[in-house]
Amino acid sequence: MASGQREFAGKADQVGLARRFVLAALDPGSPIRDDVGLLVSEGVTNALLHSSSGHEHGTFTVDYFLSGRSIRVEIRDGGGPAQPRRRVHDLESVTGRGLDLFEALADRWGHRGDERERVVWFEMDLREEMSHGGQAGAVRSSSARP
Fold first, then answer.
1. What's the pLDDT at 83?
2. pLDDT tens for residues 2-40?
3. Looking at the DSSP assignment, which residues form a beta bridge with residue 120?
4. pTM value?
5. Whose CA is closest to 44, among 72, 70, 83, 7?
6. Which CATH code for domain 2-125?
7. Is 12 strand, coil or helix?
8. From the CB of residue 74, how many other CB atoms can be counted at a distance below 10 Å?
9. What is the pLDDT averaged over residues 90-107?
10. Nearest 5°: phi and psi at 127?
11. Which of 82, 80, 64 is nearest to 124 (CA)?
12. Is 51 exposed, middle or buried, given 0-12, 13-18 or 19+ CB atoms closer than 10 A?
């Protein structure tokens, strides 16, 4: 099993860094790569918008756990007064779809925490896609077990 943890400053320019941190663990040809990247970006953006992580001097932490079968990503923020919830939005709205994306793309997801700390997590099964050479290519890390 491979894993990683990194703390980031609670700034919008850290969203891409957090996404690249997690994606570095996956093979570039992994069929779940785009979805994992989107969910990391969404989770981090929600942490910045809806928790104290987005305030001055705020931080958030991203953990990933990669096995031969799945990847689990946890985004730990500074907490906030409200629990994550789905929002009703207009078709033209540019925000409010975060939890809908987790529901649509993740194999499993959830959240826990309170006003001091919250964790939003998701898991995606590694969908082995055979390359031309007959080798599966979802896991990049050599330390991950099959």
1. 63
2. 999 999 999 999 999 999 999 999 999 999 999 999 999
3. 75, 111
4. 0.79
5. 7
6. 3.30.565.10
7. helix
8. 18
9. 70
10. -95, 105
11. 64
12. buried
Residue 123 reports pLDDT greater than 80: yes
Q: Choose among 72, 70, 73, 74: nearest CA to 145.
A: 70
Helix (H, G, I), strand (E, B) or coil at 141: coil
Structure tokens at 129: 């896609």
Beta bridge partners of 65: 3, 72
Four-residue CA torsion sign, 127, 28, 35, 2: positive
User: What is the percent of the chain where pLDDT is above 70?
Assistant: 75
Mean pLDDT of 75-89: 72
What are the residue boundaries of the structural domains of the chain, listed by start? 2-125
7 to each of 44, 74, 92, how far by Cα in Å? 12, 12, 34
